[in-house]
Amino acid sequence: MEMKEAIFNYCLRYADSSLIIGHRLSEWCGHGPILEEDIAMTNVALDLVGQSRSFYQYAAKVEGKDRTEDDLAYLRDEREYRNTLLTEQPNGDFGQTMMRQFLFDSFQVLFFEKLKESKDEDMSAIAFKSIKESKYHLRHSSQWVIRLGDGTEESHQRIQNSLEDLWRFSDELFEMNEIDEVLIKDGIAVDLSTIKDHWMQNVVDVLAEATLNVPEDTFMATGSREGKHSEHLGYLLAEMQVLPRTYPGAKW
Question: Of 37, 62, 76, 225, which cross-links 32 as Cys (Cβ 3.0–4.6 Å)?
Fold first, then answer.
């Protein structure tokens, strides 16, 4: 695989994950449990879409085929997306959303910390810009996981159920393929194996404070690196892409 192709696909992987989970959070706009939280989730969604834009812009530049960030975000088919399965899972109740966000945020912080060291100046710049936001996101989702887990009997059971439902998508966050091999060799990409143990320890510490139990012997779902997704992504994309596909080239 050529370097340019590897960088392009690597950018899409993280752009897609941030875009899709950002869109999921945006679905809460106007439906949050309290006004302050409604605004907080909307702001986090905007941050994530902003991170995706940075990756899409760089991917478009590297590809050199006159595609724009909008083309990459809205005009690809489901099998062309590389977002992790975790990010496309439905919101469910508020606890489900916060648990999904917590698992993702815990990864993002460690990932961007390492990506800052990338020899690719554009990648490093994206990481430096994104890390501050991601740390806030993690603090926010962690606090809610603890509050709900160590709250009422009902809130505890609900978020424990959410953890057991979502845990099977966590291992895929660290899955690597030939794209990673090419870029790690040149000091561009993050060796995800070097942050997995740290991620696990951070997650376990928060879950312990939340009085939640880590699921054991769980089947781990994979496939997004090859464009294989759950049934949820197609419905999400249909909603997200309806305007640019109905009115190609439309501008406000």
Answer: 37
